[in-house]
Amino acid sequence: MVSYISSITSKTVPRLTSKITLPVVKSYLPNYLLWGGAWVFGVGTFTEGWPLFQETFYKNIPFLDPEDFPN
After folding, report:
1. Distance CA 48, CA 57 (A)
2. Does 1 score more than 70 pLDDT?
3. Do the Cβ atoms of 47 and 53 come closer than 8 Å?
4. Does the residue 67 lie in any domain?
């Protein structure tokens, strides 16, 4: 025979904020810094030849000389 469920059974989902604590954030911080730096380097590499990025961002970086800009 077929057995039917007569009432809805559900479980509560634990909150995500209870798992994010300061020690957890500190443990992931080096990983986030590494991947964030890689992301910035990747964006810089692939947008180096775009004129909009050259005029907006790369010409305003103070520690690059004019001969270092691609042109």
Report:
1. 10
2. no
3. yes
4. yes
Does residue 71 carry a pLDDT above 70?
Answer: no
With beta carbons less than 8 A apart as the criterion, state whether 45 and 58 touch: no
Domain count, the chain: 1
pLDDT-derived band at 69 (thresholds 50, 70, 90) equals low
What pTM was computed for the model?
Answer: 0.53
Quote the tokens at residue 9. Answer: 């059974």
Is position 11 within any domain? Answer: no
In a domain? residue 17: no
- If you write DSSP's letter for every residue of 3-67 in order, what string do you get? ----S----PPPPGGGT--HHHHHHHHHHHHHHHHHHHHHHHHHTTT-HHHHHHTGGG-TTS-GG
